[in-house]
Amino acid sequence: MARCPTTLCPPPGTRLAWGTVMTVIEVYADICCPFTHVGLRTVVQRRDQLKRDDVVLRVRAWPLELVNGKPLDPVTTGEHVDALRSQVAPDLFAQFDPNHFPRTSLPALALSAAAYRHGDRVGEAVSLELRDSLFERGRDISCHNVLVSVANAHGVGDVGLEDEERVLEEWRDGQSRGILGSPHFFCGDIDTFCPSLDISRDASGHIHLHRDAEALDLFLTECFKS
After folding, report:
1. What is the pLDDT along the chain (226 residues), one digit of tens a residue?
2. CATH number for position 193
3. How far is it, in rounded angstroms, from Cα 166 to Cα 32?
4. pTM over 0.85
């Protein structure tokens, strides 16, 4: 399991000094994965509907360019974006631009790791904003100026070598935990791959997507028990 300073990242069920019990949902994911963008947005929306302010997302690095041995293809990603937009998420991917698709997600993942050193709330906010920058505003999140802008907006300092190493550490930890893909959710002793989406392909290789609210609520119900 990935390690984290207990003063910043309490494990599920840890009672904080001011009396709040935080429920931590860990997610292994790549920032450039459009399925993760939909998945995280859906979990955040459901969390808000349930008024569970005690729940926080701790998004770990699962760099698909290392998993697959090559960077994500912007054309293929664009096809996935089109499928998601047309089938399950018409309100998302407002200004996605394949021409501004990053060559690598590693610098953005390192920024996310740096943000989590400031606490889970800051880390979650930066992780979500990086995805919004890419998929909703069409920005290249491998660009230094874009990363600096996100970091400054959330009071995160410079990204250091320890943050880059953290990305690799989380990737190795994910391998040991049997990650199936991006996004893979953990909460206590339970885990599941992309609980908010049912993803399949037909005989011709065309992707088919459906919202799976029942699977998400089942995961969250079990998670809140932990």
Report:
1. 333 333 334 444 444 444 467 899 999 999 999 999 999 999 999 999 999 999 999 999 999 999 999 999 999 999 999 999 999 999 999 999 999 999 999 999 999 999 999 999 999 999 999 999 999 999 999 999 999 999 999 999 999 999 999 999 999 999 999 999 999 999 988 999 999 999 999 888 889 999 999 999 999 998 887 6
2. 3.40.30.10
3. 18
4. yes
Q: Which domain holds residue 163?
A: 23-225
Residue 137: CB atoms within 10 Å: 15
Domain annotation covers residue 79: yes
Residue 73 counted as domain residue: yes
Looking at the domain assignment, is residue 17 inside a domain? no
Confirm whether 4 is domain-assigned: no
CB atoms within 10 A of CB 188: 17
Q: How many domains does the chain have?
A: 1
